[in-house]
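Section: Multi-chain targets

For targets with more than one molecule, the full set of components is provided together so that the structure can be written out for the assembly as a whole rather than chain by chain. Components appear in the order listed by the source. The example entry contains four components.
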Amino acid sequence: MASPVTTALRADAQRNLDRILVAAADAFAELGPDVTIDEIARRAGVGHGTVFRRFPTKEALRAAVLRRRLDELLERSRALLAEPDAGAAFVELVWAAAESCRRDRYLFEGVETCGELEVTEGKQELHEIVDKLIRRARRAGAVRAGLDARDVGALVGAAIQAAAHAERDEDWRRYVQVVLAGLRP
Amino acid sequence: MASPVTTALRADAQRNLDRILVAAADAFAELGPDVTIDEIARRAGVGHGTVFRRFPTKEALRAAVLRRRLDELLERSRALLAEPDAGAAFVELVWAAAESCRRDRYLFEGVETCGELEVTEGKQELHEIVDKLIRRARRAGAVRAGLDARDVGALVGAAIQAAAHAERDEDWRRYVQVVLAGLRP
DNA sequence: GAAGAAGCGGACCGACCCGTCCGCTTCAGC
DNA sequence: GCTGAAGCGGACGGGTCGGTCCGCTTCTTC
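Its structure, encoded as tokens over all components, is:
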């Protein structure tokens, strides 16, 4: 996924790699970008030396996890370009982004601050597609002017972040609805 | 401020205390809650032992800084209760909160996660007054139903946080406007 | 200006954590 | 099964940082 031509891994190594990526995604989402590698290794059931053999630094591991999330969003966004109703497509996009941020509340912040090529390229690609979706929606009169992909991403990420300390667990939906209402012309 | 009956400090000690609080506020706002005490001490022009004499832990220092911000907001909110136009008072409240978060983008997150009595009490007080302002505004038809002080605080704080990585420096105003638009009925 | 209290700050300790390294284990091909 | 390569993981080094402590300095009071 990260590098298209990975030399085939031994079966046990591949198994460990998968478990590390899953454990890292969970741990980052739950404890934030400052989780220790030891914690991730513990969750994956491997020694922390094993983590460092696959990912030279903690940042590289974080980047791999972020990239996976970005790829999911990319796929979803591309599909939405085919949706005939531009306004509905935009609303769906927002909810998809919200779901992603919901799974990892540090996603937006992470993508913004991560300098790894893997992530900045993914972000760039995503922005281009999302900008298309926004322009379409604006022409259809469903979205106010003066907003781009970065703005929408930031606001949605923010709404989820806001709900992190909420009392009820579904508050994030209300917050996203507030933002959606604010995005209309 | 924190404790009403502080035993009088020696003149130089009081001077140092003031400089520490200013330096800490700046450093926390600029570098986040993880700044080192050494950095704060350096900015204040004191040794880091001096910081620990006034504040037993880093958390206590952070709490003192947060409390100061909360007190400013408290004062502002109380004044707004006297404003005859409930809708306008609410909008002003939101902008005041935004300005505070703008000065320290980690303010909201800090207040939510800080366990020190000093801060939780201040938050409680603020919530009560802001809830009054919101109820007034709702009765005046200026704010949608189903939102309380916590919600509004979260959304405003998040909007500012979102603007932290924005390209233009005034983007945070646009974001607050989006949220304000979303808060209307 | 003398004396004692208050304050200062840097050396120091211990905990934590990233990243390396190497002796041992496990897998894959024959 | 044998063999060599690939993989493993824990011990270790080095750096950082929060918090303590104590010999020295500075202020205040008389």
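Confidence is low (pLDDT under 50) at residues 1-5 of chain A.
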